Amino acid sequence: MKKRTLILLVLVLLMGVAGKLNAAAHDLLVVNEGGNLVMRYDGDTGADLGAFITAGSGGLTSPEDICFGPDPNYLYVASYYGSVKKYNGTTGAYIGDFVAEGSGGVSNIIGMTFGPDKNLYVADFINSSVKKYNGLTGAYMGDFVTAGSGGLANPRDIKFGYDGNVYVAGLSNYAVKRYNGTTGEYIDDFVPASSLGQQASAIMFREALYVSNMANNQIKRYGFDGTYIDTFTLPGSYAGAGTYDLGNGPDNRLYAAEAAARITRSITPSPFVSLGFSPSAIAWLPPLPPYVPACSPLPLSQGDLNQDCVVNFLDIAIIAQNWLVSTK
């Protein structure tokens, strides 16, 4: 009896801790390219919390993209003029130039991402290539996707897909191209120009591949086999301006950085934040885990008993609960 009471107590504590972890507050970081800084907004209310990275910190100019690295203590900001700067992920303080301006011949950066190998991949807009840098030192490792491979022209965004391959939004191609995630070799036009019919500006993976464009507020969805699903717009979006970045929020909603000086989302009220500048990219602080679409197409972990795509205290609680039932 005492043993059962103890287990029940542990079960309650575990569920309480899990609830607190799941309720952790997040703030929205928004890149202000024209102001050379990164702003911070309350993740619940959208209230302005001031600059997270102050104007020109570490020589920052024309920031285009922002992401946390494999170590969430570090935040990386890509400058259009060919450098990536490293900042403290908690305070926003400048640490150093992670990728020096022009390293490896990089000319202009709009999109970047860290790969499964924890190295940094940069879309070189002018040179129409993808360059690879050491994830620890920032040292140039080579052109992962060579200039013009598969007809690539002016890559604006880059993401690794659930299949481990690299997807690149080509602004001047009106297409999303796919490359081998290990070798960088061209595979195909995953979303061909004939289907997209617009300048691809941002891509992201949720339960499908989302593609935004530079001309208007339309966002298109494609299945993991490349099949077109639909076209939609977010509440509060402006039809006459493009979408520069897409992101998943802590509430599991879709958020978009729009050229029309606003952050919109897939739930009302929207816009979530109205800005005095055109945002180039967004991120959440602290960083969110990768979005997993109902545990598919990724394999379901045997430890994920509640099928929420995360193995955590809630799964341990289920194990304890099942044990109690089995010992009655």
Helix content: 10-25%
Number of helices: 3
CATH fold title: Neuraminidase
Provide mean pLDDT, rounded.
89
Q: What's the order of the H and E elements?
A: HEEEEEEEEEEEEEEEHEEEEEEEEEH
Count of extended strands: 24
Note poorly predicted spans.
15-23, 295-302
Overall structural domain count = 1
- The N- to C-terminal Cα distance equals 11 Å
Proportion of residues in extended strands:
35-45%
The CATH homologous superfamily is named TolB, C-terminal domain
Radius of gyration: 21 Å
Architecture (CATH level 2) name: 6 Propeller
Main pleated sheet: 4 strands, antiparallel
Helix/strand-derived category reads mainly beta
Which outline best applies? globular
Secondary-structure map:
Layout: H1 2-22, E1 27-32, E2 37-42, E3 48-53, E4 63-68, E5 74-79, E6 83-88, E7 94-99, E8 109-114, E9 120-124, E10 129-133, E11 140-145, E12 155-160, E13 166-170, E14 175-179, E15 186-191, H2 193-196, E16 200-205, E17 209-213, E18 219-222, E19 228-232, E20 243-248, E21 254-258, E22 262-265, E23 273-274, E24 279-285, H3 313-326
Antiparallel strand pairs: 1-2, 1-24, 2-3, 4-5, 5-6, 6-7, 8-9, 9-10, 10-11, 12-13, 13-14, 14-15, 16-17, 17-18, 18-19, 20-21, 21-22, 22-23
Helix pairs in contact: 1-3
Write a concise keyword list for the protein shown above.
Neuraminidase, four-stranded antiparallel beta sheet, 328 residues, globular, 12% helix
Description:
37% of the residues are buried. The chain has a 4-stranded antiparallel β-sheet, with no helix packed on it. The protein has a 4-stranded antiparallel β-sheet with strand order 4-5-6-7, with no helix packed on it. The chain has one domain: Neuraminidase. Helix 1 runs antiparallel to helix 3. The termini are close together. The protein has 3 helices and 24 strands. The longest helix has 21 residues. With 328 residues, the protein is mainly beta.
